[in-house]
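debug: dumping io for the single-chain case to check the tokenizer round-trip. Nothing else runs in this session.
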Amino acid sequence: MSKVIAIGALGGSGTRAVAQILMNAGVYMGTEFSAQKDNILFTRLFRNPGWKFNSTLDEIDYRIHVFEKIMSGKALTITEAKELNIAIKSNITYPTKDKKRRRFIFNLYIKSNDQNAIWGFKEPNSHVYLENLNRHFKEFKYIHVLRHGLDMAFARNLKNYETFRKQGV
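debug: decoded output
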């Protein structure tokens, strides 16, 4: 049974630093990351609001099962690979070109290596699935990162401020 650590929060809160600390400590965090160190696999499977709001608990649990198999280093069955393909193909929030999607899934389908006893992932939206994740994993820890409001107010990253200012907010 794997021990699982999830990192979540709002963007720009410091989750990237926490993910890097876990990586440096030897925790397996995945193989494909965004520039912010988000686990792209989790993003592909779960960051799809249309799917989330129309899915059943069983469908969410099945995707968590697929995610667990991949992250713990186990090969996917053909049915699990098909579910991953559906998830990636239908995810409009993180589009993936067909050739890359097929290669990614094929590599996971044939992959089977040593099981990762402790693994984790960083995805700011993971808090949306906390109940499901906590129910699925026997040994599950969630780290929610909060950054002090004053630190955010005086940060050099003013992209959000400029966006809101232009919109009159």
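debug: round-trip ok. The radius of gyration is 17 Å.
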